[in-house]
Amino acid sequence: MTTLKAIEIKDTIHKSQNILLHCHPYPDPDSIGSVLAMKKHLESLGKDVTAIIGDSDYPTNMTENFPIERKIAKKNFFDLNLEKFDLFIILDSSSLNQVSQINKVLIPKHLKTIVIDHHNTNNKFGDINLVDESAVSTTQILYELFKEWDVNIDEELALYLFIGIYADSGGFKYPNTSSKTFKAATELVTIHPNYHKTVFDLENNKKEIEIEMMGLALSNIKKYFNNKVVLSIIPYEIIKAKNISKDDATEGLIPNILRSVSGWDIVASLVEVEKDITKVSLRTRDEEKYDVSKIAKSVGIDGGGHPGAAGTTIMKNIKDAEKELLGYITNLFG
């Protein structure tokens, strides 16, 4: 982060009054934490802030400890009258497809946009872009922004920022976790020392459908390239036969479990959530050699993420999606 960029963002916020925030589809703790943290800060400045959950429902593993339903409206981008807003702060989203996947997102000319993100696939589509690929999470970037702006970080704000950092760092396991990450986390848990229950609830609050989907995923594994590439494949026929909803079909995906197997270098979960719509979640054990964000960006309509973890949507049936995915893997890595 540069001081000039922090000043530019602060000045733009100062000149604005009606500000929009959003969560990306299937919001994770970094998306939720970023929105809640920024909303709290903006409201402390006297701004009128609207935060929306976006395309998806409220994540059940966070509702107990976070005022999500009270602070974030159950609306998507296309439910809004954009004429009322003069600033849209787009957090933790690498492209406009991460604002909404319901339809094509068009930003009206009058609406100024600030993009704050940490994904290396971000195409810097805002009027102002703060994209720090070295940061482990967007909440870490916000922590550094708030420190530069001399924001008072109280217990509530500390928890919002910490949970995003904790989750997106994989519990401080992922490669982008740095001394800056630990410094931020140390200060935040000093301010909010009773973070343990929130972390426990985050990791131990699964729905029954997640366990069922995990079972289906583990029962439908295919191996390729001398077992170096492993895919879990669930066709729409199974989803339909079991009457599983589109949202529930993405629960319990297992790429992190697959990645834990030594020798399985590139892994992915493929689920045909609707006819001819296949959701793909990718992981790798060696992100320096196999950058799966390149795969995600090459295939599908909304691909992006990190070198070690990425996702996309392929608008094809599961067999054609599998073929296309394997083709891109071959083209990229041989």
Q: How do you describe this structure in short?
A:
With 334 residues, this protein is of the alpha/beta class. Helix content is 37%, strand content 18%. It has helices at residues 3-15, 29-44, 68-71, 138-148, 155-168, 179-191, 196-203, 208-218, 236-241, 255-259, 292-298, 318-333; strands spanning 18-22, 48-52, 87-91, 112-117, 128-131, 221-224, 229-234, 266-274, 277-284, 304-305, 309-314.
Describe this structure in words.
- With 334 residues, the protein is of the alpha/beta class.
- The protein has 2 domains: 3-203, Alpha-Beta Complex (inorganic pyrophosphatase (n-terminal core)), CATH 3.90.1640; 209-333, Diaminopimelate Epimerase, Chain A, domain 1 (Roll).
- 37% of the residues lie in helices and 18% in strands.
- The chain contains 12 helices and 11 strands.
- It has a 6-stranded mixed sheet with strand order 6-7-8-9-11-10.
- Strand 10 (304-305) and strand 11 (309-314) form a beta hairpin.
- The model has no long low-confidence stretch (mean pLDDT 93).
Record keyword descriptors for this entry.
alpha/beta; inorganic pyrophosphatase (n-terminal core); Diaminopimelate Epimerase, Chain A, domain 1; 18% strand; globular
Blueprint (SSEs and pairs):
Layout lengths: L2 H13 L2 E5 L6 H16 L3 E5 L15 H4 L15 E5 L20 E6 L10 E4 L6 H11 L6 H14 L10 H13 L4 H8 L4 H11 L2 E4 L4 E6 L1 H6 L13 H5 L6 E9 L2 E8 L7 H7 L5 E2 L3 E6 L3 H16 L1
Parallel strand pairs: 1-2, 1-3, 3-4, 4-5, 7-8
Antiparallel strand pairs: 6-7, 8-9, 9-11, 10-11
Helix pairs in contact: 2-5, 4-5, 5-6
